[in-house]
Amino acid sequence: MAREQLQVLHALDVARTQRYHAWAVVIAGMGFFADAYDIFCITLVTKLLGRIYYQVPGRADPGRLPPQVEAAITGVTFCGMIVGQLLFGWLGDKVGRKKFYGKTIMLMIMGSFLSGLSFGNTADGVMATLCFWRFWLGIGIGGDYPLSATIMSEYANKRTRGSLIAAVFAMEGFGILAGCIVTLVVSATFQARFNPPAYEEDPLASTPPQADYVWRIILMVGAIPAVFTYRWRVMMPETARYTALVARDAEKAARDMSKVLKMEFSGEPDKVQSITRDSDYGIFSGRFARRHGLHLVGAVASWFVLDVVFYSQNILQEEIFKDVKWVPEARTMSALEEAYRVARGQAIIALCGTLPGYWFTIAFVDVVGRKAIQFLGFTMMKGLMLVVATFYHSLTQPGRRIWLVVMYTFTFFFANFGPNSTTFIIPAEIFPARVRTTCHGISSAAGKLGAIVGSFGFYYASQRADGSNEVETGYPSGIGVRASLFVLAGCNVLGIIFTCLLPEPNGRSLEEVSGEGSQAMTGEDADLGDSKVLPL
């Protein structure tokens, strides 16, 4: 089937990697740096919040957030992200990728800063205010997913497109690490200044009044990188693919990219009309269902399964830290020391597993392809979780705990050198320009539904089966860490199956992958036209 392509789009596809690519990675990547900081820093301060606001006088152990409050604080951001991903994904196709790119960062700045100013006359009032602002923060973060991924894919050349999109997403790893570093610095500073005793020595003095500043500072710092990103985002030109293929303004696309690529292009309005004449269909049309329905199922299901596994790992991480004695019993520490030790453990995992995984993806995604890395990641996570689950009780014994940490760290490595990166990359490449951000938004929203399942479900599932910690934590008995890991291994098998539904976009132009610009339609397309059917 013959395929036409505009001169300006061909120039973008074959351009060498140059300054404007780096500029786009920095602009989009700094947003993801802030995204990751804001998402993951809350897990670093939940124990501190429990000690400050839910301490019960005379109790043998420090205060903890009630299960429903902890679930609300974690889940409300995910709920906001789902709204943002669906809303801004749809708006990105309707009015342009750039139009709301600055708006999402403004929501993130507002949400981060005001989260640190949460107030209330009671503990529950403070938590309710915190949830309110983190919901709006989630909307901004969610909008960043489809817009950043699509903007980067539409600016990139076809030879290094995967690496460039992966580089944007890899900033998430630095954001996670930055959250740990800020928590370490702030908690250590306050610990040195006020030197509170351990809880078992003096329950009241173990959480000094100044500890209330610690969690607020940590949350508010997340607004700083977003502030620096705002001006650059509003100055970006609209992508040529949206302007030419969706807005159908060939002259403007040529003018914008002439400035970016430092070369002259003609508008080619006649070719635009030829290329786009059969592309005016939505995601609920029969044509989309036939061409891309299975692709959308694959993208949605893979991301859902991945986030069930990925966010469950973060929850189980706390239990594993306790078993390997990286974080001692809470009553043996002050509130600030506990925050410090939790952040230190997560920083080690980020440095040894999370960050290397992202950068391995950057190095190899355009060499071996997206699907190969996704298959590898799901397969290795499945194998490692089975090994850890099978020998879990043995690995938690003294002298063997280091092997538990090593294998558990490698599951994070292969999550990021695997589906955590590729599920972000692939939806930005395989769908037509007219529905690209919408489909990415749907896929990423499915991922956050998986995050809710993983976070909430495994908060409960990972509790000890004998119910021995029900009084301590407020959670009912679950199936335990070992059985939870077996369940997660099964989820990885589903990820392998759903990956088979996806096409391989490596080394191909976006128009070639999505079928835009084809000179002919199949007989079935011609007969059914825009008949309305659901693709799922």
Describe the structure.
With 536 residues, this protein is an all-alpha fold. Helix content is 72%, strand content 0%. The protein contains 22 helices and no strands. It has helices spanning 7-14, 19-53, 67-94, 101-115, 123-155, 161-194, 211-220, 223-235, 240-246, 250-261, 269-276, 286-323, 335-368, 370-390, 392-395, 401-416, 419-425, 436-461, 470-473, 480-499, 510-514, 523-528. Helix 5 runs antiparallel to helix 6 (161-194), helix 5 (123-155) runs antiparallel to helix 18 (436-461) and helix 12 (286-323) packs parallel to helix 18. It is globular and about 80 Å long.
Q: Give the biggest beta sheet.
A: none
Total E-strand runs: 0
| Share of helix, binned | over 70%
Query: How much of the polypeptide forms β-strand, as a percent range?
Result: under 5%
Radius of gyration: 24 Å
| Global geometry | globular
Low confidence ranges = 519-536
Helix count from the secondary structure assignment: 22
The residue-averaged pLDDT reads: 87
Helix vs. strand class: mainly alpha
Please report the distance between the alpha carbons of the first and last residues.
Answer: 27 Å
Order of helices and strands: HHHHHHHHHHHHHHHHHHHHHH
